[in-house]
Amino acid sequence: MSANSAFNDEKGGSSSVGEPEYGHDPASGGIFSSDYKRHDDLKEMLDSNKDSLKLEAMKRIVAMIARGKNTSDLFPAVVKNVACKNIEVKKLVYVYLVRYAEEQQDLALLSISTFQRGLKDPNQLIRASALRVLSSIRVTIIVPIMMLAIKEAASDMSPYVRKTAAHAIPKLYSLDPEQKDQLIEVIEKLLADKTTLVAGSVVMAFEEVCPERIDLIHKNYRKLCNLLIDVEEWGQVVIINMLTRYARTQFLNPNMNESLLEEGSDKTFYGSDEDEDEEEEEEKDKKAEAPAMAKRKPYVMDPDHRLLLRNTKPLLQSRNAAVVMAVAQLYFHLAPKAEVGVIAKALVRLLRSHSEVQYVVLQNVATMSIKRRGMFEPYLKSFYIRSTDPTQIKVLKLEVLTNLANETNISTILREFQTYIKSMDKDFVAATIQAIGRCATNIGEVRDTCLNGLVQLLSNRDELVVAESVVVIKKLLQMQPEKHSDIIKHMAKLTDNIQVPMARASILWLIGEYCEHVPKIAPDVLRKMAKSFTNEEDIVKLQIINLAAKLYLTNSKQTKLLTQYVLNLAKYDQNYDIRDRARFIRQLIVPTEKSGALSKYAKKLFLALKPAPVLESPFKDRDHFQLGSLSHLLNAKAGGYQELPDWPEAAPDPSVRNVEVKDSVPEWTKCSSREKRKEKKVEKPFYSDSEGESGPTESADSESDSASGSESGSGIEESGSGSESEESEEGSESEEEEEEEKEKDKKKKKKELKKPVQESESEQSSEEEERKHERKSKQRKSESESESDEEEDSESESSQTESEDSESEAEVKKKKKAAESKPPSKPVKKDNKKEKKEMSLLDLDDFEPAPSPQATPVNSFLSNSLATDLEGLSLSDAVLSPATISPSSALKSYEMLHRITGEGLSVEYCFSRQPFSPDANMVAVQMQFTNNATSDTKNLHMEDVKLQSGMRVKEFPEIELLPAGEMVTAVMGIDFCDSTQAANFQLCTHTRKFFVSIQPPVGELMRPVFLTENEFKKEQGQLMGMNEITEKITLDVKCRNEHSIVQRVITAANLSRVPCGSDKECRFAGRTVTSSSLVLVTVATKEEGAAKLTINCEKMVIGTMLVKDILLALTQ
Amino acid sequence: MILQQQISVELNMRNSPSDPPCQSALFKGGHQNITFHQHVNPSQFIVWELLQDGPICRRLFSNSGNFWHTGTISCNIPELAAEMIHSLFLINHSGDIFLEKHWKSVISRSVCDYFFEAKEKAVDPENVSPVLQTPHHYLITIYRDKLFFLSVIQTEVPPLFVIEFLHRVADTIQDYFGECSESVIMDNVVTVYELLEEMLDNGFPLATESNVLKEMIRPPTILRSVVNTLTGGSNVGDTLPTGQLSNIPWRRAGVKYTNNEAYFDVIEEIDAILDKSGSTVFAEIQGVIEACVRLTGMPDLTLSFMNPRLLDDVSFHPCVRFKRWESERVLSFIPPDGNFTLMNYHVSSQNLVAIPVYVKQSITFFEMGPCGRLDITIGPKQTMGKTVEALMVTIHMPKAVLSANLTPTQGNYTYDLATKVLVWDIGKLNPQKLPNLRGSLSLQAGAPKPEDNPSLNIDLKIQQVAISGLKVSRLDMYGEKYKPFKGVKYLTKAGKFQVRT
Lengths: 1116, 501
What we know:
Low-confidence stretches of chain B: 1-81
Oligomer: heterodimer
Strand content of chain A: 5-15%
Radius of gyration of chain A: 40 Å
Helix content of chain B: 10-25%
Number of domains of chain B: 4
Mean pLDDT of chain A: 73
Distance between the termini of chain A: 90 Å
Largest interface: A-B, 170 and 153 residues
Number of strands of chain B: 27
Radius of gyration of chain B: 29 Å
Shape of chain B: globular
Number of helices of chain A: 52
CATH topology of the largest domain in chain B: Immunoglobulin-like
Mean pLDDT of chain B: 77
């Protein structure tokens, strides 16, 4: 039931006058005659005082516009109502105005003042819609007014109005291109806007007004990347397409250099390049020639380039096909080869969508599958064709299948093709035959099979099928004609039956070309053709002339007269091409005294060996158009298409993207993820179980957390104040704080039950820390209070996220805070080496009161070092086992980040061999950060952890400040899942991101256990056979006494010594950290340094690796 | 607004008519700059209006010996400003334009003639190419519910962007009025027009979230239209919808229900191709979770599965927190109000897909005499112990089949003479007594025996089971105090389920 019809029913009589308007379609221009009166009636209604009458009139007028009828004569009557109070009338008047203002410029000007007033309205919706309409009135006179309005709106409080301003920019630009410079200024201003609402619209304006001004993007690049996931779908598409172009101008080609990088840390990104095709290689060679310097210098991906790839990837899961396609093309054009594969799955998913979407996606897949066949091979079957698919989809799927065909899958594909040939859809059958032809040319093995199959098709009843087969067979024969003269003969016979011109032409060409193979038939065919010459199609005629010429040259005896006859016929043909050809050929082949030097070469000209045609996909090289674009689809440049630039040879200065404003970078990197921004709508308890910066890694603790989270969630329902809107959230800050405290209390209680008692102290301090955060963010807020409300929004977001962070980093931070609540220790930075020793030796000196607070510049710094200290403390209760020899005076440390690559920041890590108390299954990694730069480093934290499946990471707490020249340590935990796979992640500072990785030696994947001799023997007895590895070794000269053996083994692996009766044997035991599998090591010494090393472990991989490591330790 | 007209002529030369071009020439600006490109693909289209230059060019290259050529002449008119979607025309099945909307200057209806021409050529409306090029415009069309949504584009724009938007328009109309048909649109023409006005500004999508739109333009109800006529109230909201500004544009503020309920339908469709012998050529499962959530306030829901690892590929409503899914494989979201599609997923063929029915069929056409035989039996295969319902077989017969004289043991059949579609509606599948359809087909006299056998399309439903084995383990709600009613329903359907014969 519609409003409109309901209204008509109500009104009955009065509206029935207008009713015929819907029914019949008056002749064009009829309005001015018979309809005129009816419009009078509308005018009356518009002039009345009643809003309801006006509304009814406007509705009828709009309905007429919708049907495409001319109602321009009502303009004066309508425009009067522009100031009408009734919002619906007003809206409809706007609709009318936008439609007719261009035609009635003078009258339209009458309405301008209303909009100017509207621009100042306190209601943001009215301001926005006034600007919308004003900018939609295409009247040149008001350009200055529009310009002014846009400028004003661009700095409006409301992001919605600013968004409208961004929309108005291209409108004004199309009206008056002279305004470009001024508009660019506005665009520049809006690009700096931090709301997601504006981002999409302003980039759209940028693309339409000044796509060449790529420099405007620099400063906003990182912001746009980080905002992307929260921008509305349509904006995402525009931004992604723009950033693709941007990246092509600013970064280096990630595929230009195949060699692995020096840095092991980046290995994962370029490690697997195996799925390249050969064509691709060639392609690359061409391109790679240009950047010669690339060969010298290894390629390192710009972090900003990586940022773009990383932030767009989740959007592959978007429900919006356009967004998925935009990301897919971005990956195709920008990602290193090894990473492009991720898009295949998403694109295949789109094939289930509406047929129009399928059509576009398949076009793009067809192009991609030429370049990167491997990518779609696993999805081969998804491209199988159903008889119910629309023809254009069938043909495209066929194209993809053909592109994917290779030696291994060709038999399956050909079997599929066989079923397609029987289809009722003849166009599709023709396409299939062509596809078979292409498979046959590309894959030599199946050429004969295909040819035989096609020859069988020659007896098909459908002429189209036969014709198509002929054309394809012709191409195949061209490759090896000598073998197949019988097929040529067979085809010669077909000329009697086949009527399709293209097929006839093909047969004739074939006979002419290979007339030596069919010397008897060829002249006969020419005879028949000469007979029917006049009735043939043009292309057939041309081929008849061709055939005649060739026969004349090879067999002039038999065919001279026939050729003459054909050429004479052609001479008087209607088509100039044919006349031309005949004249040309006659001169060339028939020697006369006048004929030039060319005729000598006639044989060479005509009977030259023709290269076999290369059957190419029509989609080859289409990728020079940006994929997903209209131009790509049409394979022709559409108006307004922006070329996708080639990669630069040398990367432009990356520092242009640095943003000076201190706050903005961390702010955006922090509240990047969509969930976070949403999270703030949610009641507090969710923060605890919400994920932090680095999704997957959190899973470990969030599992345990979520239980408590949901519990406290139910608890908070009483104290929570229902749903809170954004605005009120700000106001009730203090309330929330209280709430938070309450929550925390509750949580605390719950946790106290689970956790050891010592932790309760830390709870208290964590609360303090929490408050500190609050306070800090509050301060910031009050500073920015004078600014626009939206900025406040984002401000509060960031503060929210901060507190979130602190909570989500749960355990580690608690540790740190616990430490903080204790009397601060003496500054460790002064003597780092000493600290290490002390820690491992459990020296309680660490907890002496600190000499002076000034010595420790920042809390976090202090607390971090303390956190490591605390590790030492917890060790004391855990390791009660009698470790006969303390693991290590010298823990081996590894470099994570060199100070040169780290721009002054250097990081080393070592395996501290202490249990990681938040999670017993994790290996503790102690990191030492040193700031060698001259400036402070802030917000050191980790992000984007890339792990093998099953691995987990507990991040180290963020280090807020690392002053220049200082050093700080932090501990993180990694569950390596008993494998020596590296954990890769990004180390982020406030300005930069570094890719780093931690790879554990196998010896660090275990923890010592205490066993008695008997237990040891018993366990060893159970780990025989496959689980035992024995190796004969010759001990190093320096290492032949028991002590040094023990020392070296324990340095190599985190094991504990097992007492042993014999002094010829040293035994060690440990368990792997994750799976707690026993690891037993025995070193039995014999005379002259000979020894036998035995390792029993049910994890054979660990065992073998450990043998190698210990072997190395003992023999060197 | 034509600043500079550039005419380029492109000629592709070949060795023989069917070869791909081996050389092509590109002329620009009146034959002055001649450049040769290797492998420029032949363009498919010719602007005949500009062919006054044509013959000269053609002559130039037609004399070159063995070369074949095709020539194209295209004209690039640099546009001053672009906009994404310029105009929209709604066209009904019979080809009448019944609604037009222009977001910029008016484009004449005659532009649709290019579309009509293409529609004429393609026999089936589905076979009309979604993207058409005309001399000055590009037409992007979708076909939905027997209506064509035709948009006019003037410049480069990602085609999917437009297609997706047009589908969104159709979805919105469906959502507002319950169906998307010509009569419904014409009954509500003003509302539709207002919607289009809100959805697109200067050709760029503005508000496409149904919840936002519903606050700006209220969907019609009988009660409201009566009240509005009496009071002079309006259907148009006068404040900015909260969703428009917030980070969760899909949910409106201040939702209130007396009965709070959240229902989820897990619907799976089996896409399969079975070959003649009944073995599976290809099978996969496409699933969707449709939600109907009517909850007060701002609830935060978490939906978890017993076996999320089954899901091979997923796409979400924007409300779903992607990272949460990545890390924990649970769906965490603040739901939109009302009906929405929460998630689409895909279970690939790697995991064995259960095929619920088997089909024994033989369709033969005899060389002698104009007749053929048909015998189809359907039986249960892997049904997870449930009953197969709403079983239906659709066969697109070859054109030559005049009529069918068949006897079903269960259900009934119809044969549409015009479309040559045989539909056998079986209903419930009884494992004890397998349904069978057998009989003779009569062919057009004199017509050759159809070469191929038609394939069978099967429709079926299995209630209370998701064939992939996916199970929802629990739904938790945070953020609100009340206890909602929760429900999950499973349904398996045949998607594109085809048996080749």
